[in-house]
Amino acid sequence: MRIGIIGAGGMGGAIARRAALAGATVLLADRSEERARQAAERAVPGAPGTVRAVPVSAALRPRLIVLALGWHEGLGLVESRGPALADRTLVDVSVPTGPDAVAGGVRRLADTAPAARWVKAFATTDACALFSGVVDRQPVDVFVASDDDQAKVSVIELVDRSGLRALDAGGLDNARGLEEMARVGQQLRERLLINGGWAFRFLPGW
Asked: In Å, how far are 34, 118, 141, 163 from 146, measured between CA atoms?
C-alpha cells in the first residue's frame, strides 16, 4: 500500500509511524523539507514499511492521502488542488476551533472537493499517543467515519495492521461528534496538566 501524507508535524509524523508499522510505503511532504526528512527518519525504526520525504506533488499521487494539516491549511490545499484529488481517499485529521468549529469541519472540505472520498480519522487522540500506540498500557483506539464504505475500510485496515484498534464510527455526519470529542480531550489535557499522550477509548475492549 502506498500512502501520501501532507504535513510532517506531530500528527503527520505519528501517522507516518503507524503506516510504516502497517508495512506501507509512505510519501511524506511538508513545507519544510528538513522537517519532513526528520519525521521520516523517526517513523521507520523497527517498522516493515518505508517513509520517504517528498514534494507535495508526489505525496498527492497515491490513492490514499492523509491531510495532517490545520483546518485552514487543509482547506487551502483542497481549494488549490481540487481536480487532482478526484477519486482519491482523503483523510482529514484536523480539529477546527472557534468559528470554524461551526462553519468548518470535514463537511466543508468535502463540499470543496466533492469528487474525493472523504474520511475523518485520527482526531480523538494526540500525536504522542498515536506515535507510541499506547496510553496507560492500552492500545489506542482510532474512530473512523465516512460515507464511502470502500474508503472507510481502507483506513480501518491500515489502522488495524499498525497494531491499533479501528472503530467504525458511522457516516461523515458523525465527524462533527469526533471533532467535539477531540476539543474536549485537548481541554482536559490542559486543565489536568497532562504531560504525556491522551486518547479516547471505547470499552469494553477486545
From this structure: 33, 6, 16, 21
Distance CA 105, CA 156 (A): 21
Listed as ranges, residues in the chain with pLDDT below 50 are none
Name 47's bridge partners.
none
Asked if 32 and 38 touch (Cβ cutoff 8 Å), the reply is no
Question: CB–CB of 182/194 below 8 Å?
Answer: no
Per the CB < 8 A criterion, the answer to whether 198 and 182 are in contact is: no
Instruction: Say if CB 26 and CB 54 are below 8 A apart.
Output: no
Closest CA to 140 of 11, 32, 8: 11
35-89 pLDDT, tens digit each: 999 999 999 999 999 999 999 999 999 999 999 999 889 999 999 998 889 999 9
